[in-house]
Design brief:
The protein is α/β, with parallel strands linked by helices. The chain has 13 helices and 13 strands. GO terms for molecular function: hydrolase activity.
């Protein structure tokens, strides 16, 4: 018997199917069939195509599905997230454990809630589609893989309102409610929590991180409440963004270059972004995280999360935006690094010396008496790692009258905390859609993600 726990008296998401004109579905199904047949013939001769013949033909069908159906028609044809969770749990012989959260959201446990680590997972679908069986299978498979690596982890899979019934920033409130639940109700330390999401779920995770760095003015921690913004007592362990949909722009070169190697289309993305933002609402850095300032990402680095991995497929239409976004995140995290000084004369006035936690050596290995940290003397050209601390020379002193500046820092700071991976030729969240399309061969992108998670959680 399924276990469902009540976290609050907040309204629960409706599972009613939208009303549609079923005859309106017929032309779309015709287009899907025609596109599939055409691509099955032309695929071997196409200059730009997906990595395999099977993917290429199925992506052609997906392009028609995502472009042709309206939001309501797509939701009518798809089982809701809660039902998908129940179905996949049954097939995996997992006892369902669902939690009603604030703002009408739900959280579904994949694994035991008292595991050492928990990953809050936000599924993709352009905010207009529920979690597919393939998305849920991917989450189960990822949790199983990590446990096989000796990592005690569970996944708390978020079920949130779909647009156009639920519009921005409702989903950010719901994601925050999931985070609050595992911290306040389960008593978790933030350092044991990961955020993860694909596509629109990557957008949602990014928005939540930005909110934790600098609170969104319209996101209250309690439904209808006027409470002070929720604050973390320490940063989250990590965040994983898979093909994050962080920009609603559709004019970058990759949309043209990768239009036949990916399954996303401009029409589908425009439909989804318009539904998500809703009438009268404006795009900002929380709805489109690519618009967030570098300083905002520095706030995220300082307060919200220890590490981030951003993955993109070289064959996806969103890759140009993902690269720009990754650069901004990396630069923001870099600015959270310590002060780095230029070489200065040994006899400089003390008042002119940088007042920071950096360590300064002259060319003979002497250390300033007023240095806040006094390590063993080392040569100015050496790099030393000891007890998890790196001392890396960033200026070489060729004269004993100059100081060689050395930066003392932990091994995970600044840009080192952001891992950006672009896997050549792979499509949008390909490792997840392989489960949707029942393709069993694991690609390089999936392995990159698994390796990063394993390394991060074993540190």
């Amino acid at each position: 018997m399924a276990e469902t726990k009540k976290a609050s008296s907040a309204s629960v998401m409706t599972t009613e199917k939208p009303k549609i004109n079923k005859l309106g579905l017929v032309p779309v199904f015709v287009d899907i069939g025609a596109a599939t047949i055409q691509r099955s013939v032309t695929s071997p001769f196409a200059k730009v195509r997906a990595r395999t013949y099977r993917r290429d033909v199925l992506y052609a069908a997906l392009r028609e599905i995502l472009s042709g159906f309206s939001c309501e028609e797509g939701q009518y044809l798809s089982p809701p997230t809660d039902k998908v969770y129940k179905s996949i749990s049954k097939s995996k012989k997992w006892k369902e454990n669902s939690i009603d959260l604030e703002h009408g959201a739900k959280g579904h446990w994949l694994g035991h809630h008292d595991a050492k680590y928990v990953m809050i997972y936000c599924h993709g679908g352009g905010y207009i589609a529920p979690c597919t069986p393939g998305h849920m299978k991917y989450q189960f498979a990822l949790q199983k893989y990590l446990r096989k690596q000796g990592i005690d982890i569970s996944i708390f899979s978020l079920s949130y309102h779909l647009a156009p019934q639920g519009v921005y920033p409702a989903q950010i409130k719901q994601a925050l409610s999931a985070l609050q639940h595992v911290i306040e109700k389960d008593g978790r330390d933030p350092g044991t929590i990961l955020l993860a999401g694909d596509s629109a779920g990557g957008n949602l995770c990014s928005a939540l991180l930005l909110h934790l760095g600098k609170p969104h003015p319209d996101v209250s921690p309690y439904e209808g409440g006027v409470a002070s913004p929720f604050r973390l007592k320490s940063p989250l362990k990590a965040a994983l963004l898979i093909s994050p949909w962080i920009s609603f722009e559709t004019q970058s070169p990759s949309f043209q270059q990768n239009r036949t190697s990916d399954y996303l289309t401009v029409r589908a993305l425009d439909k989804a972004s318009n539904a998500y933002i809703g009438p009268g609402n404006e795009h900002d850095e929380y709805s489109e995280p690519i618009k967030a300032s570098i300083e905002h990402w520095t706030d995220v680095a300082n307060h919200a999360v220890e590490k981030i991995m951003i993955w993109g497929g070289g064959g996806e239409v969103l890759i140009d935006g993902i690269k720009v976004f990754s650069d901004r995140v990396t630069e923001g995290f870099s600015k959270s690094d310590g002060f780095i000084a230029n070489p200065i004369p040994v006899d400089s006035d003390k008042a002119n010396r940088p007042q920071s936690t950096d360590v300064f050596h002259d060319a003979r290995g002497s250390v300033y008496a007023d240095s806040p940290v006094v390590p063993e003397p080392i040569e100015a050209t050496e790099a030393l790692e000891k007890n998890g601390v790196i001392e890396q020379p960033i200026a070489n002193a060729s004269s004993p009258t100059l100081v060689a500046t050395k930066e003392t820092r932990t091994t995970a700071v600044g840009k080192d905390r952001v891992n950006v991976v672009v896997t050549p030729h792979e499509a949008h969240e390909e490792m997840i859609f392989d489960y949707v399309l029942m393709i069993s061969n694991k690609g390089d992108g999936a392995k990159e993600i698994e390796n990063w998670l394993t390394t991060t959680l074993k540190e």
